[in-house]
C-alpha cells in the first residue's frame, strides 16, 4: 500500500468516525468513548502525515 493510499483511507475513516460521534447523544457512553479514542488516533496519524485538519475536523476536540 502506498503512502497516498494509506492517507486516503485514513481521511475516509476520520470522516466516518466523526459521523458516528455526531450520532451519539450520550457522550459518557462506552461506545462514544471508544469511537473518540479512534478519532484521536486518526487525528494524530493525519497530523503527523502533514494533513491539515482545519477543514476536515468537524468535532474539533
The percent range for helix content is: 55-70%
The number of domains is 1
Ranges where pLDDT stays below 50 over 5 or more residues in a row are: none
N-C termini distance: 30 Å
Q: Compute the number of strand runs.
A: 0
Specify the structural class: mainly alpha
Percentage beta strand: under 5%
- Pattern of helices and strands: HH
CA-based shape: elongated
Tell me the Rg in angstroms: 12 Å
Give the mean pLDDT.
94
Largest sheet: none
H/I helix tally: 2
Polypeptide structure, described:
By secondary structure, this protein is mainly α. It has one domain. Helix content is 66%, strand content 0%. It contains two helices and no strands. Helix 1 packs antiparallel against helix 2. The longest helix has 21 residues. The chain is elongated and about 35 Å long. The mean pLDDT is 94.
Secondary structure layout plus pairing:
Elements: H1 3-23, H2 30-48
Helix pairs in contact: 1-2
Question: What's the short story on this structure?
Answer:
The chain is mostly helical and about 60 residues long.
Features:
mainly alpha, 0% strand, single chain, 61 residues
